[in-house]
Structures are given as structure tokens and as C-alpha cells.
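Human: I would love a firmer grasp of how sequence relates to backbone shape in proteins. Take your time, and here it is.
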Amino acid sequence: MFSLNDSMRYWLCPGFTDMRKGISSLCGVVKEKMGCQVKNGDVFIFIGSSRKLMKLIHAEDGGMVMYVKRLEAGRFKLPEYDEQSKTYPMEWRDLVVMVEGIAEDPASRLRRLRARRNEYII
């Protein structure tokens, strides 16, 4: 079963990542650039330079999983960088806010394309 939840730890890779990379290459980025081990079950988040593409990887029982989100409209808003810890502090809710485009003002959202839902009449 593929799942992410609020009990996991989330790490956003600093800087932008070449989005042509697959799971094996991203595991190498986690080890070399972030100094972490992917197999510990944490979720590692990568953003492309255009901020329209996001990849997440993590280890589950039985293997590695990669999620990909590409925005057709708008861009991902990155969280504030913490100079002291040299990381982006991330939690489940921060990931949801970033993916859904929720802005600080509760009445507004960052631009996102709405998926068209076809209705089929049988």
C-alpha cells in the first residue's frame, strides 16, 4: 500500500534537483548532498528549477517508492530556509500546504489547475 502520513519525517533537499533523475540517482543525492540514508523510512522531497515538478522518495516494506507531482499552473512555494540547521524544516502539513498551493491568507490559494472530471452516463 502506498501511503504518506503525519507520523513520517520529511526532508526537503536544498537547492534545485535535476528532475531527470530516477530513484537510484535520487538516493545518491540523499546520501551525498543531504548526508542521510533513504532506507530509514523518511520522506525526501526534491523540487526542479522551474518549481513546477516535485518528486518524493521513501522506503516502504518491500522497496522504494517515488511520487511525482507536476503542476500545470502555478509553482510550488518553498518553505523558509533555516540557516541554523541548514535545512528546510518540513512536516506533513507543510508538504500538504506546498502541494495544494494553500497561501497564508485563508481566503486565497496559489494558482493551481483544476482537473476536469468527465461524467459518464450509463
